[in-house]
Amino acid sequence: MSGRIIDGKAVAQKVMAEITQGVERLKKEKRITPGLAAVLVGDNAASKIYVRNKRIACEKVGIYSIEKKLPGSTREEELLELINNLNLDPLIHGILIQLPLPPFLNTQKILSAVAPEKDVDGFHPINLGKLLAGNPEILPCTPLGVIRLLESISFDPAGKEAVVIGRSTIVGKPMAVLLLMRHATVTICHSKTKNLAEKIRQADLVVAAIGQSEFIKGDWIKPGAVVIDVGMNRRPDGSLVGDVEKSAGGKASFITPVPGGVGPMTIAMLLANTLEAARKQTS
Ligand code: GUN
User: Which of 245, 254, 257 is CA-nearest to residue 212?
Assistant: First the structure.
């Protein structure tokens, strides 16, 4: 079997077209333009590219966006003051703190300073807690994007064996909860997991989010499984590869490409969260 490619770019474009309409409606009916502030501390090259891509995507759908770039030496109090000002700014409905922050800053403290209703990344403990309580309000963008990709191929997680590899707060943990809410049997694997290959061989759905080039081998994939590759790893030659070997496509029924799979969906869901936050804050 040769897996069909899930075209994340195409699905993201469809979502962006819906968001564009939603933004226009909000502008027309309430004279409100959704606004997003991206906060970037330091000069991590990958983070700069992410923030730029987010700004370009905002322009495409008509969302007002600002970037707050701060030097890597920024003190915690300065950053907290900036966040507080953004919390109070009526033109801003969504705030995103680009991660990772420099190591001397307390990431949890910084993320907790964002007003929960403006936390369009869904990283605030209140939003993560609501998700765990089964009452989600704002969901983290990457797992939400993965769910949209699964919907695009009419994959119903109910009763399926899902293996999530990676336990980050950004992807793995919320991903597992979203799949549980859709009645999958979920196994979360990580760097200390024993017999990873055996666990993946049982999986109807594999979501790989470990950040290691082609760590998951093609022959571990059960024939007909759906493979979602969240990985985005740069090789020494500059090319991008996922967490799953390309040969997995020969076993899977559906597989996401890298790039062009999950990546575009993460940004599309950020815009969706910003539009929804603007609607809620102005209703
Ligand atoms: N760094 C890596 N992924 C993300 C993300 O989804 N949001 C933010 N803010 N930072 C990230």
Answer: 245
Residue 8: closest CA among 267, 253, 218, 207: 267
DSSP string, 241-273: E-SB-GGGGGT-SEE--SSSSHHHHHHHHHHHH
- Asked whether 172 and 155 are in contact (CB, 8 A), the reply is no
pTM of the shown model = 0.97
CA-closest residue to ligand 1 atom 9: 98
- Per-residue pLDDT of 84-102, as tens digits, reads 999 999 999 999 999 999 9
Give per-residue pLDDT as tens, 14-32.
999 999 999 999 999 999 9
CA nearest to 6, candidates 162, 172, 233, 207: 207
Closest ligand 1 atom to 100 CA: 1
Q: Is 199 a catalytic residue?
A: no
